[in-house]
Amino acid sequence: MSKFEYIAVLVSLVLGLGIANILTGLGRMINRRNEFPIDVVHFLWSIALFVVLVLNWWVFFKNSEVTEWTFEYFLSIIVWAVIFYLMTVVLFPTDKNLDQDYGKIFLQNRSWFLGLFIASNLMDIIVTALRGQLFSPPFYLPFVLHFVALGIIGLKTESRAYHVGFASYILFISLTWSFFVRLLLV
Q1: Can you give the pTM of this predicted structure?
Q2: Of 29, 41, 170, which Cα lies nearest the Cα of 93?
Q3: What stretches pass through the bilayer (predicted)?
């Protein structure tokens, strides 16, 4: 077993748990839709985060080309994956006794969710830098930093219109990257 395969098992487990948590939460949301209305902001972030998790799990495979694994790089990858998992738990708390008003959940956890969103982008920068590809392609750093800026704005505003737009934008960018841009860069 290679070092990558060994590490990929743990990363896959953490990201897989995140995906399972989102799917469980969406299932609960659908099943309890008559008791608790589906909130558009929460729903959009759920779908966007699902796509981001799947995309990042796919992109993680680039690490199979890494020949020299340091503990710092390993730890950064694990922290990166854990942040994504924590985002799913903040979006869909695992305590089944909690109020399931999804709009209220998002508002109460918005700072944590967006803080983790910002942290996930900063960890992506760290992981990319440790891999020696921070400026390859040259637009990578400004692209990721614009997500950080949008997250900071989201922390400062409670505007539903902003949060609908922000979640929609992340979903759109993730799908566009997955199905079009990624193919052009290969």
Answers
A1: 0.92
A2: 29
A3: 6-26, 38-61, 73-92, 112-132, 138-155, 162-185
pLDDT digits (tens, 9 = 90+) for 35-78: 888 999 999 999 999 999 999 999 898 888 888 889 999 999 99
Block residue for tokens 């495979």: 61
List Cβ<8 Å contacts ≥24 apart for 168-175. 168/44, 168/48, 170/45, 170/48, 170/52, 171/44, 171/47, 171/48, 171/51, 174/48, 174/51, 174/52, 174/55, 175/51
Q: What is the mean pLDDT of each run of 10 residues along the chain (186 residues)?
A: 89 96 93 88 97 93 87 94 97 74 90 98 94 85 96 96 98 90 68
What span, in angstroms and rounded, lies between the C-alpha atoms of 179 and 91? 26
